[in-house]
Design goal:
single chain; alpha+beta
Length: about 80
């Protein structure tokens, strides 16, 4: 299956890669490599990648709380409401 990125998505990826690279040299490339592998998995089995994991890192604790594991077609208000204290 062909996978097409919208221009905005490409800009999102570039911005994220720059941010990771600014944190640590080589991390931007590692991020892009992981995204590329994910894209390959989506092309191979497009129906398997309709879920998203939404997490909230808790500063200075080393803990990330998973707020939701939802099908991407669900209303994003579901996880946004969970992120409120």
């Amino acid at each position: 299956m062909e996978l097409r990125l919208r221009p905005e998505a490409r800009l999102d990826l570039e911005a994220a890669a720059r941010w990771y690279e600014a944190q640590e040299q080589g991390l931007g490339r590692q991020f892009l490599d992981e995204v590329r592998l994910t894209f390959e998995r989506i092309r191979a089995n497009p129906e398997a990648y309709r879920y998203g994991v939404i997490d909230l890192p808790v500063a200075a604790t080393g803990i990330s709380v998973v707020l939701a594991v939802l099908h991407c077609g669900r209303d994003p208000k579901l996880w946004r409401e969970r992120s409120r204290p």
